[in-house]
Specification:
mainly alpha, Glycosyltransferase
C-alpha cells in the first residue's frame, strides 16, 4: 500500500500518474512552477501542436469563433474556449488565440467599458473580469479597451467591497463569490491587486456566511477544472498565492480543507465537472487530477514559504 504523503510534502507525485499528467499543458507548468526548470519554454511551445490545447484549436471556425458563438453555447463557445486555452498556458503570441480575442474585445466591449457578449446587451461584471484576464493572457494587457473595462469595473464595486453580476439584472446588493473572484483575477492580470475585493473574500473565510459562519454552499468546497465562472476554495487560494498575499488566519480553514482532500497516493481528485457541452474530457470527476494537484501544490508551497510579504510583493502570477 502506498504510504500517505507526509505533512509538508509539496512535491509533484511520481507514482500512479493520471493521464492528464502527460499533457504538455500540465508538463510545462510543473517544470516551471514545481521543478524549477529554467528552460520550460520548449515544453510550452508543444501545446500548440499536441494535447488539450491543440485539440481545442482544431475546433476553431474559419470565422475565428468556436461553435459559432461569442459567449455560448456553454462551454464550447469562443469565450470559454479561449479562457480554457489561457488557463492551459497556450503561448501568448498564438495567432489564432490573438485573432479570436480581438473579436471578443471588438464585439463585446461597449463604449462605456461594460461588457456584453449576447444579443440583449445586458452587461455582466463577471464576464468583464474574465475577459480582462483572457485578453491579458493573449497579449492585450495594454489595450485601451482592457483599461476601459477595468476602470468601469472599479466603478461598479458594491458597498461590501466585491461585485455581483446580478446587480444589473435584479438589483443585488450583496457581493457574490463567483463575480468577485472573476473581477479580482482580471484586475490582478493587469497588475492591480484589489484590497477591498480581497477583504470581502477573507471576511467570509473564503466560503462561509459572514453572519452565521455556515458554509455558504457545499459546491464551494469541490474543486473543478476548468472552472469557467464558478468559484471554489482552491480558486480563491490560488488567487492569493499568485498575488503574493501575506498569510492570513482567515484562510486557515481553507488550507486545512485543501490538505485533507489530498489522497494517499499524493493526488487531489477532480471534484466536479460543470454541466454543459465540452470539446473534450480532460479529466474525470472523482479521479486523480493533474490540474487540481498542480494548483494545490502551488498554493501549499506559497503557504509554507510565505514570509509575511504584503499583497503585490510576491512573485509574478503562476499562470499565463
Amino acid at each position: 500500500m502506498t504510504p500517505p504523503p507526509v505533512d509538508g510534502d509539496v512535491n509533484w507525485p511520481q507514482q500512479a500518474l493520471p493521464p492528464g499528467a502527460s499533457d504538455p499543458a500540465i508538463q510545462w507548468q510543473v517544470a516551471r512552477d514545481l521543478d524549477g526548470v529554467e528552460d520550460w519554454h520548449g515544453l510550452r511551445e508543444t501545446t500548440r501542436t499536441d494535447g488539450w490545447c491543440s485539440d481545442l484549436l482544431t475546433h476553431r471556425g474559419h470565422d475565428g469563433l468556436w461553435a459559432d458563438g461569442l459567449y455560448g453555447p456553454k462551454w464550447t463557445g469562443t469565450f470559454y474556449t479561449l479562457q480554457t486555452l489561457a488557463a492551459l498556458g497556450l503561448p501568448a503570441d498564438d495567432p489564432a488565440a490573438q485573432s479570436s480575442t480581438e473579436i471578443l474585445l471588438d464585439r463585446g466591449v461597449q463604449a462605456d467599458g461594460q461588457v456584453s457578449l449576447w444579443p440583449s446587451r445586458t452587461p455582466d461584471v463577471c464576464v468583464a473580469g474574465m475577459l480582462i484576464r483572457t485578453a491579458t493572457a493573449f497579449g492585450f494587457r495594454h489595450d485601451a479597451r482592457v483599461a476601459l473595462v477595468a476602470e468601469r469595473l472599479l466603478a461598479q464595486r458594491l458597498p461590501d467591497g466585491g461585485w455581483n453580476c446580478q446587480r444589473a439584472r435584479s438589483g443585488a446588493t450583496h457581493s457574490s463569490f463567483h463575480s468577485t473572484i472573476s473581477v479580482l483575477e482580471g484586475l490582478a492580470a493587469i497588475g492591480t491587486v484589489d484590497q477591498d475585493g480581497s477583504e470581502f473574500l477573507l471576511d467570509h473565510q473564503l466560503f462561509r456566511s459572514h453572519t452565521t459562519g455556515a458554509v455558504v454552499h457545499q459546491g464551494l468546497l469541490s474543486f473543478s477544472f476548468p472552472r469557467y465562472w464558478h468559484y471554489d476554495v482552491l480558486r480563491a487560494l490560488r488567487f492569493f498565492a499568485d498575488v503574493g498575499w501575506a498569510r492570513d488566519s482567515r484562510m486557515g480553514d481553507s488550507i486545512a480543507l485543501l490538505r485533507n482532500k489530498r489522497g494517499r497516493d499524493g493526488w487531489w481528485r477532480l471534484g466536479r465537472r460543470h454541466t454543459g457541452r465540452t470539446w473534450l474530457t480532460m479529466e474525470v470527476g472523482g479521479r486523480p487530477s493533474a490540474a487540481i494537484t498542480l494548483d494545490a501544490l502551488r498554493v501549499l508551497r506559497w503557504w509554507q514559504g510565505n514570509d509575511g510579504m504584503g499583497p503585490g510583493e510576491g512573485t509574478e502570477p503562476a499562470s499565463g
